[in-house]
């Protein structure tokens, strides 16, 4: 996958939309029968919801982030996308918390009829997909669609999703997409990419199409050709964002670091703080684990199978007849981190982390994935220095 | 396979013959008692054919079989350690053929040959270790109701 | 999740031991693709749920045989099945025993407890084409003589070596007492040209694999079948992870060369 921060076409076909153009974009997508989902300010957070118009975007709102800390703050300007990741991600729409998978009926003679759930083709347009989240969608695509078996429910939602990426110009204090190679510029996978520019010349959005449908939608909007000044301002805003990341990962191969850290002492330290609440897995845009629920109606002759989000922090997650395999908090935190940064490579050919920082923000005790990776790296360096041999 | 393990394979060059020279070939018919718990442990055997059950007498019950010794394996190690009494009883569960070694003769041989002494001690220790591991593992009752370890 | 369960009808059931039942299934309509020895099915007990159960027999006309131990709600529901009842079946899932790898080799089939079930179709496949392999040895460990699976069938297999040992002997047991590894001295195999197939509790798998390595069997020729919590069997739910392995996809049969270092890490 090409790096998001390099190898950009110096001058891709682009146009400029102003705020009215953005309004027109939302209306055009709605006219095409799409449900437009995007960020909006509600309940003290920037949440993802259906947008009826671009006016519902959080113009003028930013966020103040830290470990276990999230505050919406008023900005001095009217930027619409000057907030980084919120409590939700696009998986809430593509991989909803509960999905019915099949229904089964038992006839009086014992005959069993199983009906696969038909997933009506959803038709979403996601407005404001940050580059880190764009990668997160690609990662879930690989997990749920890229193997021998496909998740049909996910496929139906994903096929119908139109993605409008918005490059990152205002990273948060918990962001580290540069370390993960996922931002702040948009990588591949979008239908349309926007870069917000707000300067003395005005408030506008540099727009490029990534697909034929994206180009078709853009062509129907009030727009003007991209001028050099807007292109330069957009590139500089993204470039500047790359230099203002609030967090970073240690500059090592995290896959190898995780594989060689299974017996690290650091796990005990983090386990003494971790509540095993699973917030990080719920907030993470790539965490995909689910469990199954079987339910029957009162007659007992109608049954349903549902899948539901589950967290590897749940004690029952590793249940075996003799008891759970991962009984300690230490082993469950280790499972999450080593999977996210390490064994995800073995299983799905990439990292499972995109550097969005949600797990840091929404951890009630402010456990910081980057701090833990640094600590594991330092412990490994210390072990090597002490001559315990290479991992 | 007799090739792997086995007392004779564990001995240094030439000692197999020396040891066999003081051995006696014995046969035990099915069901015969080879030794009894508490009896004087003044010999040991290397089983050639058949199987020997090691048991413990429990009043009011049939003797409980703790372990079995098959072809190629060492039968008896109590001869090596004071107080030289058998801890278990031994019974032939089939027609058993074995080499029998008198403890005094073996000790005399070892006194003259430290290399043989060492190899023999290592072999007996390894055998005891194996049986200890076997007993410990079986304590877990791995195949029991809660110890299952594979697909349901 | 992809395909929902396919209805299969119970042909017959047979109590195997006090807590284990064997039943044979035939498709009630459409049949699933063919299973290979070592693969598993998800068996659906109506309204109760699903459990992963390895295939213990591959029957003509897409029939399946399963041996199930009552350990949870689903397996207890499966124990209540009677001839004529219908269950849902999904599969086949997972890696099977890699028999082509063993071509020309001596074979060691080592089973502990209900671990004999997934090994049974492997033994049958080898017995059906013995010319492709060296000597076939079957070593079975069980809790007690009463807990031994497929008792009559074991006696009927014509093998260079077939040994059974139990943890605890009841009255009148004429056979071996002790660990299954103690039977290796009687098995007939040349370690460097041997492929081993092991299934049982993980402790038993580790002990057996270690002993085989010590005797000179190559780690990549030691195939083991591992268990973790499987929910979806399609690689989407994340439950069956063992480090880098998703066992419903990369297992349950794994080479010891890939698994050895994972089995030494506690709570992995």
From TrEMBL, chain A:
InterPro entries: 4Fe4S_Fe-S-bd (IPR017896), 4Fe4S_Fe_S_CS (IPR017900). It comes from the Bacteria. Pfam families: Fer4_22. Keywords: Iron, Iron-sulfur, Metal-binding. The keyword Oxidoreductase does not apply. This is 4Fe-4S dicluster domain-containing protein. Residues 263-294, 341-372 form the 4Fe-4S ferredoxin-type domain. SUPFAM superfamilies: alpha-helical ferredoxin. The keyword Metal-binding applies.
TrEMBL record, chain C:
Signal peptide: none annotated. Residues 3-99 form the FAD-binding FR-type domain. It comes from the Bacteria. Pfam families: DHODB_Fe-S_bind, NAD_binding_1. InterPro entries: Cyt_c3_hydrogenase_gsu, Dihydroorotate_DH_Fe-S-bd, FAD-bd_FR_type, Flavoprot_Pyr_Nucl_cyt_Rdtase, FNR_nucleotide-bd, OxRdtase_FAD/NAD-bd, PyrK_electron_transfer, Riboflavin_synthase-like_b-brl. Gene3D superfamilies: Nucleotide-binding domain of ferredoxin-NADP reductase (FNR) module (3.40.50.80), Translation factors (2.40.30.10). This is FAD/NAD(P)-binding protein. It comes from Streptomyces orinoci (Streptoverticillium orinoci).
């Amino acid at each position: 996958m090409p790096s998001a921060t390099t190898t950009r076409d110096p001058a891709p076909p682009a146009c400029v939309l102003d705020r009215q153009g953005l309004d027109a974009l939302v209306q055009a997508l709605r006219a095409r029968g799409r449900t437009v989902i995007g960020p909006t300010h509600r309940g003290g957070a920037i949440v993802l919801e259906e947008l009826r118009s671009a006016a519902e975007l959080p113009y003028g709102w930013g966020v103040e982030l830290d470990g276990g800390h999230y505050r919406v703050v008023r900005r001095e300007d009217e930027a619409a996308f000057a907030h980084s990741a919120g409590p939700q991600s696009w998986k809430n729409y593509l991989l909803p918390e509960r999905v019915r998978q099949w229904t089964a009926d038992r006839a009086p003679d014992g005959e069993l009829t199983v009906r696969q759930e038909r997933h009506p083709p959803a038709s979403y347009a996601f407005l404001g997909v940050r580059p880190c989240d764009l990668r997160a969608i690609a990662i879930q695509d690989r997990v749920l669609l890229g193997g021998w078996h496909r998740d049909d429910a996910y496929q139906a939602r994903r096929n119908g999703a139109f993605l409008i990426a918005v490059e990152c110009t205002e990273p948060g204090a918990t962001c580290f997409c540069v370390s993960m190679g996922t931002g702040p510029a948009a990588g591949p996978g979008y239908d349309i990419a926007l870069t917000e520019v707000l300067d003395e010349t005005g408030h506008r959005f540099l727009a490029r199409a990534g697909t034929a449908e994206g180009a078709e939608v853009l062509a129907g909007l009030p727009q003007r050709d991209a001028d050099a000044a807007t292109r330069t301002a957009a590139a500089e805003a993204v470039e500047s964002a790359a230099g203002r990341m609030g967090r970073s990962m240690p500059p090592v191969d995290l896959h190898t670091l995780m594989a060689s850290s299974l017996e690290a002492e650091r796990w005990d330290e983090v386990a003494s703080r971790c509540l095993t609440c699973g917030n990080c897995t719920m907030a993470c845009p790539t965490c995909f684990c689910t469990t199954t629920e079987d339910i029957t109606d009162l007659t007992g002759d109608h049954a349903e199978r549902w899948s539901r989000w589950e967290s590897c922090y749940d004690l029952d997650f590793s249940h075996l007849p003799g008891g759970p395999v991962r009984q300690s908090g230490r082993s469950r935190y280790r499972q999450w981190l080593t999977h996210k940064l390490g064994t995800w490579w073995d299983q799905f050919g990439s990292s499972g982390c995109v550097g969005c920082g949600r797990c840091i923000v929404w951890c009630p005790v402010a456990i910081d994935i980057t701090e833990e990776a640094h600590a594991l790296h330092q412990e490994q360096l210390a072990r090597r220095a002490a001559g315990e041999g290479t991992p | 396979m007799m090739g792997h393990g086995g007392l004779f394979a564990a001995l240094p060059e030439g000692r197999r013959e020396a040891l066999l020279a003081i051995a006696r070939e014995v046969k035990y018919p099915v069901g015969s008692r080879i030794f009894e718990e508490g009896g004087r442990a003044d010999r040991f055997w290397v089983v050639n054919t058949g199987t020997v059950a090691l048991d413990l007498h429990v009043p009011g019950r049939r003797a409980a079989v703790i372990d079995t010794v098959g072809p190629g394996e060492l039968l008896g190690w109590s001869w090596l350690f004071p107080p030289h009494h058998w801890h278990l009883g031994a019974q032939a569960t089939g027609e058993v053929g074995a080499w029998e070694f008198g403890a005094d003769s073996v000790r005399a041989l070892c006194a003259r040959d430290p290399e043989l002494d060492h190899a023999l001690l290592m072999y007996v220790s390894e055998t005891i270790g194996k049986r200890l591991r076997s007993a410990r593992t079986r304590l877990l009752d791995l195949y029991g109701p809660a110890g299952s370890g594979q697909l349901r | 999740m992809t395909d929902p369960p396919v209805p299969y009808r119970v042909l017959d059931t047979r109590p195997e031991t006090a807590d284990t039942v064997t039943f044979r299934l035939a498709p009630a309509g459409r049949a699933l693709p063919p299973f290979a020895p070592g693969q598993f099915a998800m068996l659906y007990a109506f309204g109760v749920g699903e459990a992963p159960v390895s295939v213990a027999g591959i029957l003509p006309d897409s029939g399946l045989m399963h041996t199930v131990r009552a350990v949870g709600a689903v397996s207890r529901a499966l124990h209540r099945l009677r001839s004529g009842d219908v269950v849902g079946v999904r599969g086949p899932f997972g890696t099977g025993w890699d028999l082509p790898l063993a071509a020309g080799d001596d074979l060691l089939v080592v089973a502990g407890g209900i671990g004999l079930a997934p090994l049974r179709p492997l033994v049958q496949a080898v017995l059906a084409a013995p010319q492709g392999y060296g000597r076939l040895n079957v070593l079975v460990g069980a809790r007690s003589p009463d807990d031994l699976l497929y008792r009559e069938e074991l006696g009927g297999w014509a093998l260079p070596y077939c040994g059974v040992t139990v943890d605890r002997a009841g009255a009148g047991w004429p056979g071996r007492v002790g660990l299954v590894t103690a039977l290796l001295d009687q098995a007939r195999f040349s370690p460097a040209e041997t492929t081993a197939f092991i299934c049982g509790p993980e402790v038993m798998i580790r002990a057996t694999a270690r002993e085989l390595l010590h005797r000179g069997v190559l780690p990549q020729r030691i195939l083991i079948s591992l268990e973790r919590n499987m929910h979806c069997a399609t690689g989407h739910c994340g439950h069956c992870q063992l480090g880098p392995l998703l066992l419903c996809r990369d297992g349950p049969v794994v080479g010891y060369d890939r698994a050895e270092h994972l089995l030494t890490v506690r709570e992995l």
